[in-house]
Amino acid sequence: MIFHSLEFLVFFVTTVTIYWALPHRWQNVLLLVASYMFYGWVHPWFLGLIFATTFIDYLSALGMGRWPARKKLFLWTSIVSNFGLLGFFKYFNFFVDNISAVAAAVGWHISGPVLSVLLPVGISFYTFQAMSYTIDVYWGRVQARRTFIDLALFVSFFPHLVAGPIMRARTLLPQVEQPRRFSANAARNSTVLIVWGLFKKLVIADNVGVIANKVFALQSPDFFPLWAGVFAFCIQIYADFSAYTDIARGTAKWLGFDLVVNFDHPYLAVGPADFWRRWNISLTTWFRDYVFLPLSYALSRRWDGIRWLGLDDDIWIYGTATLVTFLLSGLWHGASWNYVLWGAYHGVLLALARAGAATWKPRRSVRRWLTPFRILGMFALTNLGWLVFRETDLHTLVRDLALSPFHRSPFGRQAGAYLFLLAALYSLPLWIHSLWVYNRPAPQGADNGPSATRVDPIVGHEPTLWRVAAQTCLSGVLFAAILILRSRTSLDFIYFRF
Amino acid sequence: MHGFALWVVVAGTLLLPLALRPLARLGPDSTETFSYLPTLERTRTRTMPFDTVVVEQLREMRPEIVLIGDSMGGSRIDPTYFASQLGNRNVAPLFYNATGSAFWYLAFKNWVLAVTPRPRLAVFFFRDDQLTDPLFRVTGPYRATLDRVARSNEARLNVVLATRLQGPLYRLDALADEVYDQERLRQWLEPALVNAPVGLVARHKEARTLLGRMNSEIFCLEALRSMAQADVWQAEEATYDFDKSVATSVLPPLLALGKMAGVRMAFVRVQRRPENNRPPVQSPALQRYVSRLRGYLDKEGAFFHDDWGDPEQPLSMYADGDHLSSTFRHRYTDRFLQVNAPFFR
After folding, report:
1. Is B144 an interface residue toward A (CB < 8 Å)?
2. Complex-level ipTM
3. Which of A68, A96, A192, A387, CA to CA, is 20 to 30 A from A208?
């Protein structure tokens, strides 16, 4: 079931209506049934996988609590089974193809088996979420849960099941376990958030997605149309993914849950590290906590005090851990080399930025003056990354990167400018929103997410008269815009395929 | 106060777009034509009128056999050769590139059955689950092709599309359009938005032709990657549920029309591109689908032929995607007639 369908509207309204009429324990049962229905709507066999993941992690965590001496065994059981399922469905053909290619390169011609099974939607998201539970139980950060229904709901909670945000056990499980109260204030804010999410998806992402798809279907695009297409994809992926998160957060709020903020206006980032503090925050922090930090600690024990090529140990440790983390993060996105390359690209950017920051520390006034240029520079680098991400054929990618802007036909320039302006026109509300939030002063004590210091004007306020009027107008105008400007071509959420 | 504010926002969200109704009247006066497929859009300005020339040609030709399909049929069968091999029977090819089962249904209903005497046989060429996927090539850039073959009211096809798209809730979507009347505003706002940047990048003279030139020079079929060009689509496993999808497809009305008109119906599933010079792998779901399709067509008295697994159709016969190379059209036609000799006799 997808968010922008009438089926979902009926499903959601029915669920919410029954939900608030039930006592707490039954609310969880209803949400679990609804979540399984949501997930198995098109492919009922997906339910077997999510149930297996949940059940194995449930038993593993209980085992850790009961037999502490064998904690590691239970952890590995959970890791192997979770990554086993993920690896089988997502990476089997990728590995077989690559093994066949390597074998062919040394003269052995083998044709491996081909897995003709659909990739279960959202498997990467819920696997990581379930993994965080067992790892946190292993580390003693979370208690193993005895109530299976609560854990199953934590893994399968429908608003964020398919494309995140990836929630941690210590954030979401207490919300599952504690009684929830309906908050009209939260429901009001979340209504605006949902409409804004639908607008981003149906008007911005799907319209600019058509431009990107057209350009990336070309055999050998000219320089200017290509980069206009990359810009369109850059807008599409942000609008699309952040739309999903907004709708997920909005629907969860109607049910009394708080999901984490996953995007913090990433195209206003001033550098690579800032970008990753703002983009897909829940996945980035997952990799930080479960890959980057453990790896950094392990490396710091081995490389303590080293100095190679004039660089201190902390640069080497940070660089290596970052590169490994981002290679894995790239692979998480898809079983294709371009994703790995995209991860490596961002890993290298981060390492270089860190090395640069260690050698050049400008004064605060200079930094402030440089900010717009840093934002523009980072935006350009991000676009380059999106080209690598979007272009799955490596030969074409190399050709695209080798294209020169000079000596191009005037018509190609015109076409590129037209496509760029059209994508910019559709994305205007996105930029206005980002700049508005960016220029708002932070109210005292306000915290709207892991890195945000400003309160998003769309949500998060008490209902004063003018605010309710403003929200009503905004929401009504956005809904009207959806009705008249939504794309004729409905595209899937991009992150569904990961 | 909090509860009241919530209902104000919800009600405002739903009520404010009612302003679209009077706004639509401020736009340029459009000659509003109700769409023949209101499920897809309430109003529609046809890109081309219903093609009566084809009907005239069929009337003149009086075909005994009509061949219907897209480029898959067109790249396989040479109609003239096909006719000659059958003792110079009248054979009318209706192969139209980039079409799907909705187009074929309308072509059969509005072109073939508009002619008397009716042909004795209609042969449809398709891939995998196309017969039960009415949405294949009816939206986006393919939408225009239906104009050529659709009458002013296509109620049966509309119900098929509506039930497929929205299930039993399809009337709710139509209701939204009734309430907000957004299609009328959309009709002129959409092109206005798409044309807005043109003036900024091109001078007056060039501006008028810029979009047309872009479509014909940059985004033309020849400029697309071969796989996009050949439209190698991959159906999802879930759509290989024959029993679930047949009820919301054009297949039942197509067969009913054939029966009513006394036209024998034949369906040919072409083989898709082989892999490693072997027939393409078929998932268990697809195998089940094909078996159910065969059973259904048998029961309905239609003929079914499946190319899959034919050793005489190796990879070397294929051009791009699932298309056969044009040099093999005679070979395929011969093979097709040879394998199905009892039927064509």
Report:
1. no
2. 0.78
3. A192
